[in-house]
Each structure stands twice: as structure tokens, then as C-alpha cells.
UniProtKB/TrEMBL annotation:
Residues 13-73 form the HTH tetR-type domain. Gene3D superfamilies: Tetracycline Repressor, domain 2. GO terms for molecular function: DNA-binding transcription factor activity; transcription cis-regulatory region binding. InterPro entries: Homeodomain-like_sf, HTH-type_TetR-like_transc_reg, HTH_TetR. It comes from the Bacteria. This is TetR/AcrR family transcriptional regulator. Keywords: DNA-binding, Transcription, Transcription regulation. It comes from Nonomuraea rhodomycinica. Residues 36-55 bind DNA.
């Protein structure tokens, strides 16, 4: 049963990736506005209902790693090594995300996003959602019942660091510079989380 579930999940992931790859190819060839959902579904050889079971909207096709990035930010808080400070853990994750999004071949995608009001609006709503999820994770790490203004502000700074650094001439240096400010703000706020206990596996 577990093996069958594994095959089903792999098949779903492969279908999702095929849809996303087809959409990006068509958008690159003909322009985002010129391609409809039905054309993407036909190109990926899936039904429109199948496409919508994987992606909530046409805009979501462009940001196919949306949920993965959101989970990575949360896991940077929840799954970091014992005694590792929060801000360095987040800086490491932002470095990885920026490297991914500034790799060779990524520039045309970001130009397409910049040229589309609908995609820019979707990206902004995505960043806000990522910041809310990250703020909740930070609050939980501090044993707070809900996110405070400090948690929300730091989370927004971290999420915005990705966007700012991605557009910089030297993304790696930009991440480090931004995180020096974030770390200073975190220190001034006095929001020091309790020490994290080592898991049995890390002892």
C-alpha cells in the first residue's frame, strides 16, 4: 500500500511538472497573454480539470515552486540544527533560493513577470502569504501563541530580501548585506528564542 501511494505521488508530481514545463515553454514562445489555459492543457496532454487540480490559476503556472519555497522558509525555522540561530538559518535558505532563481536561463522568466500586471500582482500576494507563514513559524519558535508585529516584520524583511537580492548585480553580497540589517533588527528587538534541544538523531 505504501509503495502504491509512492507511485501515485510520483505520478502526480510528474504530471504537475509536465504541465508547468509546457506552460513556461508556450509562454516563452508566444507570450504570457497570448496563451490560454486550454492550450496549456492540450500541450501537456491533460484535461483542463486536471490542470486546475494542480494549479489554482493561470498565474500559478508561472510560479510553480510557490508552495515549495513557502515550505522551505518554514522548515528553515522548524528543522534547523540544534542551537543554530534563527537568522543565519534563514539567511542560508534565502541564499539557496536566490541561487536557484538567478541560474542561467532564469532572466526571460523574470522579464515576463515584470511585463505582466497580473503576474506582478500574483507575486506580491505570494510574498505576503510566504511572510505570514514564516511569521507564524517564528512565533511558534518563540513559544508565542500568535505572530507579533516583530515576527511579522522580520518575516517580511526576509521574504523581501529574496526579491531585492534576486535583482541585484551581485545577489550573494546583497543577501549578506540585507541580512546584516535583519540580524541587527532582530537583536534590537531582543527576540531571542529558547535554546533548541538536540534531536536523538543529532546527538
Amino acid at each position: 500500500m505504501i509503495e502504491q501511494l509512492g507511485r501515485r505521488e510520483r505520478k502526480k508530481a510528474a504530471t504537475r511538472q509536465k504541465i508547468a514545463d509546457t506552460a513556461l515553454r508556450l509562454f516563452a514562445e508566444r507570450g504570457y497573454d497570448a496563451v490560454g489555459i486550454r492550450e496549456v492543457a492540450a500541450g501537456a496532454d491533460v484535461a483542463v480539470t486536471t490542470l486546475f487540480s494542480h494549479f489554482s490559476s493561470k498565474e500559478a503556472l508561472v510560479f510553480e515552486q510557490d508552495e515549495d519555497f513557502e515550505q522551505r522558509l518554514v522548515r528553515a525555522v522548524t528543522d534547523r540544527q540544534a542551537h543554530e540561530a534563527l537568522i543565519p538559518a534563514l539567511r542560508r535558505e534565502i541564499h539557496a533560493m536566490v541561487r536557484h532563481c538567478t541560474a542561467d536561463g532564469a532572466a526571460p522568466l523574470w522579464r515576463m513577470i515584470e511585463e505582466s500586471p497580473a503576474l506582478r500582482q500574483y507575486e506580491e500576494s505570494m510574498r505576503q502569504r510566504h511572510a505570514r507563514s514564516l511569521a507564524a513559524a517564528i512565533a511558534a519558535d518563540l513559544n508565542l501563541p500568535r505572530a507579533t508585529p516583530i515576527c511579522s516584520a522580520i518575516a517580511r524583511f526576509v521574504v523581501d530580501a529574496f526579491s531585492v537580492a534576486r535583482e541585484a548585480d551581485d545577489p550573494r553580497t546583497a543577501v549578506d548585506e540585507i541580512f546584516r540589517m535583519i540580524e541587527a533588527a532582530w537583536a534590537v528587538a531582543g527576540a531571542t528564542p529558547p535554546a533548541r534541544e538536540s534531536s536523538p538523531a543529532s546527538r
